[in-house]
Amino acid sequence: MKVMKISIFLSMLIFVGCSVGGVSDNDIGLRKSSLFSEDSAIKAYDYNLKVAGESTLIDRAFENAPPMIPHNLDDMLPITKENNSCTSCHLPDIAEAVNATPMPKSHFYSFRENVDLNGAMDESRFNCVACHATQVNAQPLVGNKFMPNFREADSNKKSNLLDVLNEGVN
Question: How many CB atoms lie within 10 A of CB 110?
Fold first, then answer.
């Protein structure tokens, strides 16, 4: 009984302590504005307006990270299974001829069924912007001291995910 009274007292003390000092709704998120108003919360960023082939690639954030999209997407959206403008340049057979980054082998492999699709793109990979984000001229919201450690010299430019996916697994 004594332990229960002490537990209740400590719980109330913690509750009162948190509610007195509290955190304002302006300080909860990274955007530092009210969570109850969208008036000034969303900033317009300077997205890359260069067309495909004219932009500078940003290195991958870490080994096998999806690369960022370095060009404008205005005329390419929405991306659907039936209408995917990305594949018109990034399919491996076409990419070299148009100087584009080819889609990696992992996009032609079904991880659900553990089978190589022999050059057919996995149907779950049609929505490119689910993983690939467009480059934007924006300062980070928080500091980041992370430095990627690429095992191979060109890993910052290409993927070897299928080759290393089961590394260390027996």
Answer: 14
